[in-house]
Write a structure and sequence with these properties.
single chain; 6-stranded antiparallel sheet; 22% helix; 165 residues; 3-hydroxyacyl-[acyl-carrier-protein] dehydratase, mitochondrial isoform X2; Thiol Ester Dehydrase, Chain A; alpha+beta
């Protein structure tokens, strides 16, 4: 059985930048993006991954397995993390990710992806940054997915993605 994990309220309400005047990434900075996964998203992911598990496509199969509805692929949900990072740091190279799947994500759930910088290290004019990663469901504190990611960033200047402006 999956254990319920909750995200602290301050991460839901925190600003994206270290200070109002700075767009330079610092330890503790939080970046967020929301997304609702559709049936079309699940189908598209299955076409690329060849993961046609009936839990993603057949409501009766999902219910027989103990789920409320059809599931979104966990790896599709986790794809929010490199998306969030690369949207703020074009040219970022995503080098590692650990994942813990805590609770199911159903088609139509509103998911908030959160990445928080935990360590920064400069090396050869680039930056190795470790991020804590979390996805929460439906404006609650329920964590559906968490872990850590490491990315190599070309610089620490955060861009405000045009789709968020």
């Amino acid at each position: 059985m999956l254990a319920k994990t909750f995200v602290p309220r301050h991460l839901l309400d925190s600003r994206c930048f270290s200070s109002v005047n700075s767009k330079i990434l610092k330890v503790g900075d939080v970046l967020r993006e929301a997304r609702v996964f559709s049936s079309e998203d699940v189908k598209g992911y299955a076409e690329v991954s060849h993961d046609w598990n009936p839990l993603h496509f057949d409501q009766e199969s999902a219910r027989k397995a103990g789920f409320e509805n059809r599931l979104v692929h966990g790896m599709l949900v986790s794809s929010m993390f490199p998306r969030i990072i690369s949207a703020h740091f074009p040219g970022a190279v995503y080098v590692s990710q650990t994942l813990h799947f805590r609770s199911p994500v159903y088609i139509g759930d509103d998911i908030l992806g959160i990445v928080q910088a935990t360590t920064l290290r400069e090396t050869k004019n680039k930056y190795i940054v470790k991020f804590s990663t979390k996805c929460i469901k439906n404006h609650s504190e329920l964590v559906v997915l968490d872990g850590e990611a490491t990315a190599i960033l070309p610089n620490l200047e955060m861009l405000q993605p045009s789709h968020l402006e």
